[in-house]
User: Fold this.
Amino acid sequence: MADNEIATKAPESDAQAPAIPGDTPAQEGPTMGDHCATDRPAPAGEVSTGEISKINDVDVYITKPNDYPHSPSKLLLFLTNGRGIKSVNNQLQADKFAGQGFLVVMPDLFAGDTAPNTAHPDPAALNDAHPSLIDQVKLRAADTAKSFLIDMWLARHTPEKVMPILHKVIEGAKEEFADAIASGAGIYAIGYCFGGKYILLLASERPDGTVNGQESKDEEEGAIKKSPVIKAGALAHGVLVTVDDIKGIKAPVALACVENDSLFPDEIREEGQKFLETNGIEHEVKVYTNVPHGFAVLGEYEDQHIMESQGRVYDQLLGWLKAH
Assistant:
């Protein structure tokens, strides 16, 4: 890495406990920030080419290579950030993978309930190097309000809610796009921000991280385990990722991470990476500096370094998927 400066951090969150009894507890500290819940300006002149339809009653954005089905394609499950399948940027990014030979299925993980838009209400004040006392109070109040909204949204979209959606989509895709799955000898998957955690769960052999995987008996532990659902996975700047999520991985995975990312702390990444290395799990971890969390999602930035890094992480993840 050429740069060693501190990366931009997203606003912190005050979530401490689950809002819905029985669901996965909310992560302590930061959870999601502006770059997970707000779209950047879309590339000028680009129009998405896929379409929104349904698989097993779940809304999905589907985009295909131009020569499909006349030429073989591989199935890629695309798991989005909080903006969901109607985000133009997410659609355009899915289209880019379709242009590389993947039949892309991008499911609505949120049943239409996308993350609240956290764009700041007063951009002029944000850009002011010396905001007035009143503006400072307004900005602090706005930060508190949007953190609360995001935390409440996350409490509605836990693994207990999201995994059944993935169950339905994957089972439906096995029927509708059996040719693409056969062509790739399995399902590939990529995830950004919110979707990143679920790449790890789908790459896991544990029962809570699988979708109708094949069962195998661990004789020593007496536990029923299942094979990973995906053949290979890739993710960029995941959120709500735990060390246990990483320790469950058995399928090859590539991670694109942000240095000093409060939403995917360095200590979690480093401990997880050590586990993967020690246990011989095929993986790749690259850390990007001087970029904000969420930078890998397609969108325009004035900072040329961020734009170049966005291109590099796309090449990294695409190369990983193609190599597997």
Residues 8 and 292 are 5 Å apart (CA to CA). The first strand starts at residue 51 and ends at 55. The two ends are 25 Å apart (CA to CA).
